[in-house]
Amino acid sequence: MRKIALLPSAVKQRSAELAEKLADSLEAKGFQAIIGAETPPDSPRSSGKGYAEITQAIAEAELVIVLGGDGSMLAAARRLYPSEIPLLGVNLGKLGFMADAQIDEIDLIPEALAKGHYRIENRMMLEAKIERTGTGEQVSVDPALNEFAFLKKTLSRAVRLELKVQDEPVANYLCDGLIVATPTGSTAYSLSAGGPILNPTLQATVVTPICPHSLNQRSIVLSGEEELHLQIGPGYGRELIMTSDSRNPQQFGMGDSVIISHAPYCTKLLRLKRVHFYRSLWSRLGEADF
User: Fold this and answer.
1) Looking at the annotation, which residues are catalytic?
2) Are 201 and 186 in contact (CB under 8 A)?
3) CATH fold of 3-123+266-284, please?
4) Would you kindly state where each structural domain of the chain is located, as residue ranges?
5) The dihedral of CA 93, 127, 220, 249: what is its sign?
6) What is the pLDDT of residues 208-226, one digit of tens each?
């Protein structure tokens, strides 16, 4: 693992400066470091070697280091899919659930990598396709590391969503929308909607309704190997927007079917620390008292 691409956030202050500092430190340890950017910033380093367009920067990389928040990590995961090149996050955001290093730990990264003091975590992803009614057209949806969300197009009406698992009816939700999340995504939108927290290394899927109009319609945790089918039921809203990790909206209408399954490839996260997931979780949520 000698070739490393660094992807600084385009919106976080000092990210490019920190990326340049880290690249210099990595090169001092014998690594090949290149910084990827849509438009390289105006800095002394960018006038010489060391910068490239993002696609070029990651083309031969054996590790990608992301300097930003969870949004930057999700964007990098989309770019890397399906290569399974490991990602290491340096948190410049707020919660930073997917990042392993904080900004004050950036100087420790080159030494840890040089000594092989790390481990790799495999994070499950989901894939989906929409089958259009009438035409039979199948529309592929970008894979999701966090979740697929189904959101109302109009504010005034609830929607009925019929869920089948392996072709067996499981739930009939009257709600404002639905979230189908991975274990990694269980601490994101699904958590905000009242869903459970899962260990991110599990192979499972969480289905969480948004504002369900019933006391007994709650989240369901399913095996990651099970295939989900969703359709809009009769009598209420007739159209939804489907997003993948809050991106790439797709129309989902009455009569259409969405099929969601375990993606064949995963996102690999490089971990330098041995901090237990639950300790890290409560620390990020501001609940730690130990």
Assistant:
1) 70
2) no
3) Rossmann fold (3.40.50)
4) 3-123+266-284, 126-262
5) positive
6) 999 998 888 899 999 999 9
